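Note to self: the last two entries modelled the partners one at a time, which told us nothing about the interface. This time every component goes in together.
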Amino acid sequence: MKIRKNIAVSDTGFVFDPSTGESFTVNETGQEILNLLKEGKSYDEIATAITTRYDIDRSGFEKYYQDFIEMLNHYHLIDYEG
Amino acid sequence: MEKKTFEPPVIKKLNAGMPSKFGMTPHIEAIPEIEGHKVEELLKDHGSPLYILSENTLRSTYRQAYQAFSTRYPKVQFAWSYKTNYLAAVCNVFHQEGAWAEVVSGFEYHKALKNGVLPQYIIFNGPAKSYEDLKTATENGSLIHIDHFDELYMLMEVAEETGKKPLVAIRVNMDTGIYPQWDRFGFNYDNGEAWEAINRIMLSEKMELAGLHTHIGTYIMTTQAYRVAASKLADLAVSTERKYGHVIRYIDVGGGFASKNTLKGAYVPGTDTAPSFDDYADAITGALINSAIKPEHLPLLILETGRAMIDDAGYLLGTVIANKRLASGRRALITNVGVNLLFTSFWYEHQIHPAEKVSQHTEDTTIYGPLCMNIDVLRAAVDFPLLKKGDHFVIKRIGAYNMTQWLQFIEYRPNVVMIDTQGTPHIIRRREDLDYMTRQEELPGHLKNFEL
Ligand SMILES: Cc1ncc(COP(=O)(O)O)c(C=O)c1O
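The predicted structure of the combined assembly is written out below.
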């Protein structure tokens, strides 16, 4: 699973989808996950990255991650073709 | 390396040029401590959820209210409206400040006596006093506020049986320009019914008409309504003195001042719209002073202020149980505080604050309680910070009505703690337990045993 290629993520937490013209904001953890996804990282790699830097364990993180992915899906930001 | 606090990741669509109904979303500040005590520690010591009352705020609010009236009018008396919060510790803070008791049932009447209030300082309101209630209040010399003609006649019987003259006032309802008009309680002014009740009392000579009372409604946002109410009661006092040479000793304008909570559906927060005690005092005392009542007969002014006196002193602390994504995409927060503990969430959009510091990121959220019912909603739609399981929160301004209208439903009612003026917390009502819950039950013998 990947973020659509043309999606732009700024350093200040703004996300722009050029195909629809829609803009979004993400918080710090959201931004990190988005960038890791753009780099093509797997769930395992993302979970390791986040849980080493933040005060959360893997099982706690998984649920919030799934929820975040659902939101990305909802906004059509995910590219399933790969 | 110390780890950073984790905030659930969130993405939110920006709607350029389409501000929400409230314009810019105000940042929701964290409330990490109450009167010098960490929220986290209060919850660790006393359990979650938890009610907190600030004795400081109770006293300072009372003093503000008293000062607003006493600087404008020579004789002022507050009476604590028991139904608003009748925990003994709360009542006694107000009694120490000088408030009488205002009660509306036999239970509340006896609670006031048990708290140590002398019977002559108890005002007995309410539409459903029993014959026994009236008899006790008459024998004790309490102030009985008559609600309807049936009660008036019952009180005449009590007077005959006891050989004592009940000290009474009549409750008056009236058009004060506010809608809806509360015409359910008392005798109507505008159609002459109140005057008729006064005549019956005066002509019967079985009772002593001490005062006149009204309670025009609750959360009244216009002070003009009080000006009208006080003027109409003053007119009745003047007519009574003119016709019978009888001086009305007190005028009681009831409760009803708005607290700073925001009503559901209001566009502007209550902190911006609620009149101050000074505003109310101006209207009420102005009407009495400018009335045709003779200066030497100015009556004692009684106030039964409830919610505006105590809302600010109360906090409800709780814990997030779960996060959910609703089918609509909206975020849902399940908490351990439901409408069972926050009855006033049916009228107010309560301010809910995270206890720990949060980022400025928010999401459109519905906040639910723990009950298995659809109506268990604390906030239907609020732009709320991203709390996670186990996080704590503080609900502000919940001192009025919640600790009396709470529902014993599914869960035990939690501890209530008062933080005294020195900063020391005291449990003033213990968490319920199975023993408390079953104490009143009787199990018939044939239902004691079963086999499964
Ligand atoms: C007779 C009477 N007095 C005082 C009050 C207190 O009212 P509030 O909380 O609106 O000040 C009430 C509340 O219903 C009442 O019925």
